[in-house]
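Cont'd.
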Amino acid sequence: MFRRSLTATLLIVVCGTVAFAGPNSADRVRAFAILPNWTGIWQSAAWPLNVSGRPPGGEAQLRELLQLIRQPPYNAEWAARYNIGMKNAAARAAQNATFKVCSRSFPALMEAPWMFEVVVLPEETLLIFENGQVRHLYTDGRAHPSSNDLWPTPLGDSIGHWEGDTLVVDTVARLSSEPLAPRAWVSMLSDRAHFTERLRLLDEDDVEDQLTIEDPIALAKPWLLTLNFKRVREMNRLLPYDCTENERNPVVDGKMIITTP
Amino acid sequence: MLFRARVSRASDLMEPTKLPKITIRRFLICIPALLLTSQAIAHHSGAMFDDRISTTLTGTVKGFQWTNPHCWIQVLVPGKETTVEWSIEMGSPSQLFKGGWRPTTIRVGEKITVVIHPMRDGTSGGLFVSATGADGTLIGTLAKR
């Protein structure tokens, strides 16, 4: 009796698994076939890092290339707040001297130094960053969750659709307590910030992200930015990155130091 | 003698024996510079490194840490009285891999000459700029470009 039950259970499990792992439907295959192929490893064009872990042109080059550290087109009230923050040079100097960044909120993640893989599927496009962060850009026709099911997170909630070879992404529910980007310590947005991205492959080695930020609370007008990404041909796989394996840069008495192993 | 430390910057070239006077005016002028310079490191602020100065160290590799968030070269540099261990900070393994480095690119016991941007606080550490082996060839394919 027990043996017969076990056999029946095993048959159900095996048949169920086969059914679940069956071939893709013709519709899914067709949907996949018309998607652009962005397979590969990419990196923000603002971060041409060398083996020292810094851009060849140093901070000056970086500040020229980074978009999100520029002053947002704030309305009068938020501009006043921003200017007060910018006047506190001592606080900004202290932050610039001691900051460590191991993960980023959106949109700063799109201007991070970390390499990422792109996986384009009919249901979603995945941006998988080497530090472990993943952006899920759902393209299965879903809407953003209802207000009961939606709360602010560092990356927000992203849905998208394809317009030809351009991926149009709509992001809401970004955590408003996060500065806009490292170095932009006093650039904040409200919890009503709304982001639209138009991502497209310019050529084999270049992806462009036209980002529009709208915020009826903080901004006087939409903020248009263009972020660029370069294909990393030197890498044949994404290598893991984390900040904990061998952290040798503690901050002691307000200064970052190097510890000896 | 293996030890060789060379410091070069514009002010040294102009007035090699004269130490700069730090006045309040000069200090205030430096504040914006501190806000803007030497911070372009992927994981953390780079303000602790003085990228206006390049120091050359010659010694023996004590260790090569192929680790996140940074790789490190430990170099034993003999001085007049004692040998000093220097910690040379590099990028992450993925940045080194992209630049042509591998965990076996340098080995313990190897003679090496490393150019660094030193720590501002004078401790024996710095940010990697370039390295050459005992035969004078640059280490890592990126350095050869």
